[in-house]
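Q: Please design a sequence for this.
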C-alpha cells in the first residue's frame, strides 16, 4: 500500500513545492506514495478541517523550511506541533527539507535530520536537479524503512488553552465500520473512507401528515431536537458517528449514549461517566456550563426503563441539552406519539439508498487508496460495472438497498483479485448473504445443511399457501417435516431464524423477512423436485404464464442457478418465442422506416454540449430514483392480455439477460446463442408490432393531437396539422429508440459479446447493427471508434438508425470521459459539432 505524504510549506515557497511534487512524481506513478498539499483542497470546503484530516492520516510529513515557513504561526504552532507528536508516537515520520537559507536551529523541528545532505538549502545548490535527487533518495529510504507503530485516529478537537481533547475511544468509535471490511489498497477501511450521508424523510412541521425528502446533512443544522427512525442495519449508528464528527468540527461538544447501557434515570451520573470516557481535560461542571453541548442517544427504544422513568429521563436530558438527537427502530416510531417528552421533536425516517447514493458509495469503494491516481475513465468504468452487478441483486422489495448489503456485496467482489463479477449472479450473491445470516445466528457449519433444507421446505409451503403460515399451519408444517426427515425442534430453529432476520412475523403468521431469501429457496425446491412431482411442474407453468411479475421472474432465475439442467431455459425460450409471434422481427431497414424520412431531416443536428460528467450522472440517477418512487410495485394478474404480453416481453428479456450474465461460463455456446436470440427477437417482434399498429393508427393519433392544438389561435389549420404529425413521428421515433436501448441493456452481457457479434453476422439487419453497438457501449463503458465507423457505414442510407447511433454516442460522452482527440474524430465521423469542448479540456488541464 502506498505511503501517504503530507507537504507543509509557506505559500511564498510555492515554486519549491511544485519542484518537489515534480521530482517525486515517479514515486507516485510507481504506487510507492500518494502526495497531498493544500492546493488540493476543494473550493468552499472547510480548509482547516481538511488539512488536519490529511495531516493525521499521513505516514510521511515533509516541511519545506524557510524563513517564511518558520514565521508562520499556523505552520509552526498547529501543523508542526501535531507532526512532532505523531513522530514521537511512531505514527508518522517528520522530515524537514531546507529550501532557503534560514536559522532553524532554535525551532521546534531542529532536532530532526533535514534534507538534502547536510541540510544544505536547496537554493544554494549549483545544480537544483541534483539537490532534489538527493531529497528524493532520502524520502525513498524513509519509505522503505519506516513502519507506523499504530493506526492514526483523527483527534477532531485539540485546544492548547484548556487541554480539551477527544479520547482514543471516541476516535476509534467514529471510524469503526462495525463490520469487517478488507480492501487490497488500504490496511484498514475506515468509516470516513466509504461513508455516504443518507437521504431522510421529514415530517412537515406545519402538517404532520405531509412529508419532505432531504439530505440528512441538512437536518442537523435545521433541527434542534430530532428522533431518527430506521430499520435494523439501516445506518442509524453510522449517521450518528457522522453527526458526532460534524459537531466536533463545528466546535460543539457532543456526548454519545447507548440506550442499552442506561441503567437508571440518573442523568447527571450518566453524563459524568460518558464525559470521562469520551473527553480528556474537562470536568462535569465545565461541561454543563458549555452552551454548545449536544446529547446523542443511540437506540432510545432500548432504554430499559418503564414508561414513567423513561419520560423523566428524556425530560431531564432536554432540560440540560438544547440539542438532542435520538435514534429508534422503525417499529418503535409508531409508539412515539405516546411519549409526551418527544412531542416537540422532529421525526425523521432514514431512507434506503437509491441509485445516486449507491453510485456514491461504490465510487468511494473503488477510490480507496488510489483516489489521487485513478483516472476518470477507470473510475466510471469500474463504477458502472459494479453498479450493474449490485443493482441486479439489490432491488426494491427484494433485497433492501441498505448500505450494509451494498458493502457486503462490494466485499464479496473484492475477494476476486481481478474484480471479476462472475459471483454477481443472483444465486451466488444471495447464497453468501444467507450464509452470513447463518453465521450471525451462531448456526454451526455442520448444521447449515439442516437449516437450508428446513428453509427450502418452508418456502415451498408458503408458496403453495400463497402467503405466510399462521401458528397452526406452522405446527402442521413441522409435524409433516419430521415425518419426512430427521426430527428438528421448532422451538430451537424458529427463534434463531426470526431473531437474525431470515424469517419474521407478518399478519399474525410467519413469513420470510426478505423476498430474495424466499425466491432463493422456492427456486431450490423446484430445481430439486421438478422431475419427480407433477405439482411442482404445474407451478412452473404458473410461473412461466406470469413471468411479467417480479416474484415469478426472480424465482425462475433462481431455478437456473440451482440446476444445470436445460429444461427451465428451454421453457423460458418457448415463452419468449410465442410473444407477438404473429409478427416478424423488426429489421429497422430503410424501407420499413421510410415514413419517417422527411421528419428526420427536420430534426436539428446534435451538438455535444458543455456538460460535467459527474453532474450528468447525478441527474440521471436522480431521475431513476424519482421513477422508482412513483412506479407501481409490480404488474398484477388482472391486467389486460395485451399489456401483460408487453410487460412479459420486457421482463422475459431481463430474465434471459440475467441468465446469460449468470451462466455465461457454464452454458454451452449454442444454448447461449438460442437464449440471446429468443430475448432479442421477442423485443424486435414487439417493436414490429408497435411500428405496424402506430402506422395504422396514424390518422387517429394525429387527429387527437390536432384537437389539442386547435385551441391555439395563432396556428393555422395547416400548421396545426403539421405540428400534430411531427408530434406523432417524434413519439414513434422515441419508442423505437427506447426499445432498442431496452433490448440491449436487458439481453446484453460483456462476457458474451462474441455471441451478439455472431448473431449480427448471421442476420446483418440495421436493428442488429444498432443492438450490437449499443451493447458494446453499455457493457464495455468505452468508445470504440472503429466499431462506430463500421456501424455508421452500414447505416449510411438509414436516417433513423444513424440518428440513434449519434444519440448513443453523445449519451456516452456525457456519462463517461472521452479525450478531446477522440471527440474530434467522432465529430468528423458523425457530423456532430463539439464546439466549446476545447475550452473545457484546457480548463480541466489548468485545474489538474
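A: Design:
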Amino acid at each position: 500500500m502506498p505511503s501517504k505524504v503530507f507537504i507543509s510549506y509557506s505559500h511564498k515557497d510555492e515554486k519549491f513545492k511544485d519542484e518537489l511534487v515534480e521530482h517525486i512524481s515517479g514515486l507516485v506513478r510507481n504506487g510507492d506514495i500518494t502526495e497531498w498539499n493544500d492546493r488540493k483542497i476543494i473550493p468552499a470546503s472547510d480548509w482547516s478541517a481538511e488539512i488536519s484530516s490529511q495531516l493525521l492520516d499521513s505516514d510521511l510529513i515533509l516541511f519545506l523550511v524557510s524563513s517564511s515557513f518558520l514565521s508562520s504561526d499556523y505552520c509552526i504552532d498547529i501543523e508542526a506541533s501535531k507532526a512532532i507528536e505523531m513522530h514521537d508516537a511512531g505514527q508518522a515520520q517528520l522530515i524537514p527539507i531546507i529550501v532557503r537559507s534560514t536559522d532553524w536551529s532554535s525551532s521546534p523541528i531542529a532536532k530532526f535530520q533535514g534534507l538534502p545532505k547536510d541540510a544544505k538549502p536547496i537554493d544554494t545548490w549549483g545544480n537544483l536537479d541534483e539537490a532534489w535527487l538527493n531529497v528524493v533518495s532520502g524520502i525513498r529510504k524513509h519509505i522503505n524503512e519506516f513502519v507506523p507503530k499504530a493506526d492514526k485516529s483523527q483527534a477532531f478537537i485539540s485546544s492548547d488553552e484548556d487541554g480539551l481533547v477527544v479520547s482514543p475511544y471516541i476516535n476509534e468509535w467514529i471510524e469503526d465500520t462495525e463490520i469487517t471490511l478488507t480492501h487490497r489498497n488500504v490496511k484498514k477501511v475506515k468509516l470516513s473512507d466509504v461513508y455516504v450521508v443518507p437521504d431522510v424523510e421529514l415530517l412537515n412541521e406545519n402538517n404532520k401528515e405531509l412529508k419532505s425528502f432531504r439530505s440528512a446533512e441538512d437536518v442537523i443544522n435545521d433541527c434542534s431536537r430530532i428522533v431518527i427512525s430506521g430499520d435494523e442495519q439501516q445506518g442509524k449508528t453510522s449517521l450518528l458517528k457522522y453527526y458526532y464528527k460534524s459537531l466536533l468540527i463545528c466546535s460543539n461538544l457532543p456526548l454519545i449514549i447507548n440506550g442499552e447501557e442506561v441503567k437508571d434515570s440518573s442523568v447527571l451520573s450518566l453524563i459524568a461517566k460518558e464525559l470521562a470516557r469520551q473527553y480528556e481535560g474537562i470536568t462535569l461542571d465545565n461541561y454543563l456550563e458549555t452552551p454548545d453541548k449536544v446529547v446523542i442517544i443511540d437506540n432510545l427504544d432500548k432504554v430499559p426503563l418503564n414508561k414513567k422513568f423513561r419520560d423523566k429521563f428524556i425530560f431531564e436530558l432536554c432540560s440540560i441539552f438544547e440539542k438532542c438527537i435520538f435514534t429508534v427502530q422503525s417499529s418503535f416510531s409508531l409508539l412515539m406519539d405516546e411519549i409526551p417528552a418527544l412531542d416537540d421533536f422532529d421525526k425523521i425516517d432514514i431512507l434506503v439508498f437509491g441509485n445516486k447514493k449507491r453510485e456514491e458509495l461504490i465510487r468511494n469503494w473503488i477510490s480507496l487508496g488510489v483516489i489521487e491516481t485513478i483516472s476518470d475513465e477507470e473510475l466510471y468504468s469500474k463504477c458502472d460495472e459494479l453498479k450493474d452487478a449490485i443493482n441486479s441483486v439489490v432491488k426494491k422489495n427484494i433485497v433492501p438497498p441498505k448500505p450494509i448489503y451494498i458493502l457486503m456485496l462490494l466485499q464479496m467482489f473484492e475477494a476476486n483479485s481481478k474484480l471479476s463479477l462472475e459471483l454477481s449472479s443472483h444465486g451466488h450473491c444471495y447464497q453468501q448473504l444467507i450464509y452470513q445470516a447463518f453465521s450471525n445466528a451462531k448456526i454451526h457449519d455442520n448444521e447449515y445443511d439442516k437449516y437450508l433444507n428446513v428453509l427450502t421446505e418452508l418456502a415451498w409451503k408458503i408458496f403453495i399457501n400463497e402467503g405466510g403460515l399462521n401458528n397452526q399451519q406452522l405446527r402442521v408444517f413441522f409435524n409433516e417435516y419430521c415425518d419426512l426427515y430427521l426430527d428438528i425442534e421448532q422451538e430451537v430453529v424458529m427463534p434463531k431464524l426470526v431473531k437474525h432476520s431470515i424469517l419474521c412475523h407478518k399478519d399474525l403468521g410467519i413469513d420470510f423477512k426478505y423476498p430474495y431469501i424466499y425466491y432463493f429457496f422456492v427456486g431450490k425446491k423446484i430445481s430439486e423436485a421438478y422431475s419427480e412431482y407433477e405439482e411442482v411442474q404445474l407451478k412452473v407453468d404458473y410461473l412461466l404464464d406470469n413471468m411479467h411479475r417480479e416474484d415469478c421472474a426472480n424465482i425462475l432465475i433462481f431455478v437456473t442457478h440451482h440446476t444445470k439442467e436445460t429444461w427451465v431455459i428451454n421453457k423460458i425460450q418457448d415463452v419468449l418465442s410465442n410473444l407477438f409471434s404473429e409478427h416478424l422481427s423488426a429489421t429497422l431497414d430503410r424501407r420499413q422506416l421510410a415514413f419517417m424520412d422527411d421528419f428526420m431531416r427536420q430534426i436539428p443536428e446534435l451538438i455535444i454540449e458543455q456538460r460535467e460528467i459527474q453532474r450528468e450522472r447525478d441527474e440521471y440517477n436522480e431521475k431513476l430514483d424519482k421513477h422508482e418512487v412513483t412506479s407501481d410495485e409490480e404488474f398484477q394478474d388482472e391486467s389486460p392480455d395485451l399489456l401483460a404480453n408487453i410487460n412479459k416481453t420486457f421482463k422475459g428479456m431481463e430474465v434471459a439477460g440475467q441468465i446469460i450474465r449468470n451462466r455465461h461460463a457454464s452454458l454451452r455456446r449454442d444454448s447461449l446463442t438460442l437464449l440471446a436470440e429468443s430475448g432479442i427477437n421477442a423485443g424486435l417482434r414487439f417493436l414490429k408490432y408497435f411500428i405496424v399498429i402506430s402506422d395504422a393508427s396514424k390518422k387517429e393519433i394525429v387527429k387527437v393531437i390536432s384537437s389539442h392544438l386547435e385551441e391555439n389561435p395563432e396556428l393555422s389549420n395547416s400548421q396545426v396539422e403539421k405540428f400534430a404529425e411531427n408530434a406523432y413521428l417524434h413519439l414513434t421515433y422515441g419508442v423505437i429508440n427506447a426499445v432498442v436501448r431496452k433490448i440491449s441493456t436487458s439481453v446484453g452481457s460483456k462476457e458474451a459479446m462474441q455471441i451478439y457479434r455472431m448473431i449480427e453476422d448471421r442476420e446483418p439487419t440495421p436493428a442488429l447493427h444498432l443492438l450490437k453497438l449499443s451493447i458494446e457501449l453499455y457493457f464495455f463503458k468505452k468508445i470504440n471508434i472503429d466499431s462506430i465507423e463500421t456501424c455508421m457505414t452500414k447505416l449510411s442510407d438509414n436516417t433513423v438508425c444513424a440518428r440513434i447511433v449519434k444519440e448513443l454516442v453523445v449519451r456516452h460522452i456525457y456519462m463517461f470521459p472521452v479525450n478531446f482527440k477522440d471527440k474530434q474524430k467522432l465529430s468528423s465521423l458523425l457530423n456532430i459539432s463539439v464546439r466549446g469542448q476545447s475550452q473545457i479540456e484546457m480548463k480541466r488541464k489548468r485545474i489538474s
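Q: Thanks. Anything notable?
A: DSSP finds 37 helices and 15 strands in the chain. The chain has a mean pLDDT of 84.
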